[in-house]
Design brief:
single chain, about 120 residues, mainly alpha, about 45% helix
C-alpha cells in the first residue's frame, strides 16, 4: 500500500503537492483548520472523480460553501489532467510514497491512498 511522506524529509516518491495536478486547492492558514481543509479536499475529490465536475468549478463551489481560500500556488488542472495523473499514481507500485509537506499530520494524500486501496480491492 502506498504511504504518505513529507517533502521536507525526502524527494523519493510521487509528488502530490500544489506544484502538481494532485495538490490540495485549499490553503491551510491556521493549524486548527486542518480538518476543515482536508474534509474540503475529500469533497473536491468526490466532485471531480465521481460527479464529473471540473476541478476549478469544484474548488470554487467548496470554497464558497466553507469560507476557504484557494491557494495561489494551486496548479488548477482541468479534469482530464487531474484524472490522468490520478490514474498514473493509482496504477503505480504499492510501495510508492505520496509526498506532501503535511505528513505526519492529516493530509490530502490520505484520500489518494484510500482511493488506491479501493481500486486494488475491487
Amino acid at each position: 500500500m502506498p504511504t504518505p511522506g513529507n517533502l521536507r524529509d525526502t524527494l523519493k516518491g510521487i509528488l502530490c503537492d500544489r506544484s502538481t495536478y494532485l495538490g490540495n486547492p485549499f490553503e491551510l492558514k491556521r493549524e486548527k483548520d486542518r480538518d476543515k481543509v482536508c474534509d474540503a479536499f475529500d469533497q473536491y475529490f468526490d466532485l471531480v472523480v465521481h460527479k464529473d465536475i471540473e476541478p476549478i468549478l469544484a474548488a470554487e463551489q467548496i470554497r464558497l460553501a466553507h469560507q476557504l481560500t484557494i491557494a495561489l500556488s494551486w496548479k488548477r488542472p482541468n479534469r482530464h489532467q487531474f484524472l490522468r495523473r490520478l490514474a498514473s499514481i493509482t496504477s503505480s507500485d504499492e510501495s510508492d510514497t505520496y509526498l506532501c509537506c503535511c505528513h505526519p499530520k492529516r493530509c490530502h494524500v490520505q484520500t489518494y491512498i484510500k482511493y488506491w486501496q479501493a481500486k486494488v480491492t475491487v
